[in-house]
Design goal:
It contains 10 helices and 7 strands. By secondary structure, it is of the alpha/beta class. It has a 7-stranded mixed beta sheet, sandwiched between helices.
Length: 214
Amino acid sequence: TQSTRPQRLLHAVQKNATKGDPRSVVKAIDNFCRQKEWAMNVGDEKGCILDSVVSEVNPVTVLELGTYCGYSTVRIASLLPPRAKIITLEFNPDYAKIARQVIAWAGLEDKIQVVEGPSGEWIPKMKEQFGVKTFDLVFLDHWKDRYLPDTKLLEDCGLLRKGTILLADNVICPGTPDYLEYVRNSPRYKSQYFKSHLEYTKAEDGLEKSVFLG
Ligand code: SAM
Ligand code: MG
């Protein structure tokens, strides 16, 4: 039987990363993607920008939209203070299964909750199901046409507070024009672009960091 890319990525982690060492997991995935197969992780270059935002915000509650194999989840969780938690949403059960194994290899199960299902269904249930009041940081990295509707849903569900940071990946490539237009022009946000490159390539891409002003 043929293996899938996420399965091969997991095998690369189990072969090359040290159990319980999140940075070695990140490195094994980056090496796999640069040397063997491209994959849609935020990657090492934009990953450094992600790291600096996480360190600056020092969040206690984080929501990630789009888990895939758990690369960015591990990156974020490894930088969280004690008692902080990240909830990550993934609607593809095969990806969620791989992500749980990558996270376990990194030794970060205690900090991460992988939730299976579509963001549009889970966001309205966040408060009741997970006891979340508001998120300190939201990382948007799922399908690009969902950034804007899910941001509005987060607002409507009262999951953003004054000062919540939204960090959105791939705002140039593949691009999220309606979302960018919204966060850059709405008086409810102060927004800033961080220029970089599409994961594992030289094509321009970047992250948009937007502060919710309430
Ligand atoms: N954040 C990951 C990283 O950097 O390692 C990469 C995430 S990948 C670009 C996007 C993922 O979002 C895919 O695995 C896809 O199945 C998932 N996805 C897309 N739309 C979704 C939705 N509406 N709800 C939940 N998951 C979604
Ligand atoms: Mg991305």
